[in-house]
Amino acid sequence: MFLSSLEPRTARTTAEVVKCVVWPLAVLTVLHRVIIKAVNGFRTDDFKPVYEAALAFLNRRPVYTANFDWVDPHYLYPPSGTLLISPIAVIDPERSRWLFILANAIAILIALYLLLRMFGLRLDSPIAPILVLAAFSSETVTNTLVFTNINGLVLLGEVAFLALLLKRRDLWAGVALGLTFAVKPILAPLLLLPLVRGQWKVFITAAGVPLALTLIAWPLSVDAWQFVEHTVPYLLESRDYFNSAIVGNGMYYGLPGWLVAGLRVVLGLMVIASMWLLYRYCRDDELFFVCTSTGVLLGASFLLGSLGQMYYSMMLFPLIMTVLLPNSVMRNWPAWLAVYGFLSYDSWLSGRWVETGRAAEYMKTTFGWSLLLIVVFAVLFDRYLAARREGRLEGGIEPSHLLRSPEQESTARSKPDQEPEREATAP
To answer: 283 and 222, same structural domain?
Structure first.
């Protein structure tokens, strides 16, 4: 009786087949990443210095005592962040780490659900298990859990901010962003979005939340000023280890300063041009504009700033999700070559081709972020040139095939050499 219930009485649709195949894979991948890989740990432990800082804070001992001459993970959160994470030290380190892993995993799952809802999808969509499986198979989610850092909670703050921003719930959007600022300002570039959209109330809570937490935490910390004197200078430096930013890899491989600066300038100009095209011609398509701009701004900050680590890449999930939109800049193979570079968990270290394998391993994230920014610029600029050539810039730079009726599109495909102007006048 039980076995017969597994066989459908009618032919399944493609969507049903996808769900029944992918959901078990997704669920087991999540459980494996959380229960096995994360609990086992590997290579480094981002949680240990955080737990020790929280314990020191609760016991009124100095927090900012890290020796930055060592390459081990350091505690870098400001006093406001110390206040927020201090409850983790109430219990023993092992169980606290497990709970922190679980909190990050749940935060990532909630963020993925919010992304689905932003794109008008529900849990019964076949996209849902594909998204969960892809996310938890990636390097960024896997190592966030394995190294046990706070990026999963930051991702939730980012997606909540975008969802609330799109719904025009400005004060709450600022709260979501402000809570991440209280720990680390990795999402600071996203303040450009409410600025250009005229959503000024976001800035009240985005600045107010970390300020209020700082005012509370400062007198409770015995060495708060050491964060300014000791930690901030280190945060402003570029380092040549565990750093996939252009400047980090440039330092590691000994590239000349002019080449590093030149690469940053060229890619920076592409980012500026992409943002101008998005704002000038795409801002009325709110979901496309907000999610694409988010990816461009954060990708640029990781690549062109002083520090970019591969597991930051989960903050690019909103841009990747735009592949579901017909006008997405992600609907081309170079974009997914880029995604492989910064999301894949594959290791390219080789025992046979040692130097080549090491270069591929250390450069794949930098390559991926760079290619992604180049692809976004190239797609938008090509659309701009096409729209200008066809005399329709005033109406935006949507791809021409999205502006045709189904009948016109069918005609265009059957007559590929026909000029666009003649297509537009064809009956």
So the answer is: no
pLDDT at 3 (0 to 100): 62
Residues in the chain: 427
Is residue 59 a part of any domain in this protein? Answer: yes
How confident is the model over 109-124, as pLDDT tens digits? 999 999 999 999 999 9
In sign, the C-alpha dihedral spanning 288, 291, 297, 300 is: negative
Assess whether pLDDT exceeds 70 at residue 409.
Answer: no
Q: How far apart are alpha carbons 56 and 82 in whole angstroms?
A: 10
For 208-258, the pLDDT digits (tens) are 999 999 999 999 999 889 999 888 888 888 877 788 899 999 998 889 999
Asked if residue 3 is part of any domain, the answer here is: no
Host domain of residue 36: 13-228
Beta bridge partner(s), residue 42? 44
Name the phi and psi angles at 332, rounded to 5: -160, 155
Asked if residue 384 and residue 312 are part of one domain, the reply reads yes
At 55-112, the pLDDT tens digits run 999 999 999 988 877 777 888 899 999 999 999 999 999 999 999 999 999 999 999 9
Taking the C-alpha atoms of residue 72 and residue 67, their distance in angstroms, rounded to an integer, is 9
What span, in angstroms and rounded, lies between the C-alpha atoms of 61 and 223? 8
Assigned domain for 407 exists: no
Co-location of 222 and 275 in the same domain: no
pTM: 0.90
158 and 62 share a domain? yes
245's enclosing H/E stretch is none
DSSP string covering 266-279: HHHHHHHHHHHHHH
Quote the CA–CA distance of 73 and 70 in Å, as a whole number: 8
Output the DSSP codes for 351-417: SSSHHHHHHHHHHHHHHHHHHHHHHHHHHHHHHHHHHHHTT-GGG----HHHHS-HHHHHHHHH-TT
Q: Based on the fold, state whether residues 191 and 316 are members of the same structural domain.
A: no
What backbone phi and psi angles, to 5 degrees, belong to 42?
-170, 135
User: How many structural domains comprise the chain?
Assistant: 2
Q: Are residue 94 and residue 215 in the same domain, yes or no?
A: yes
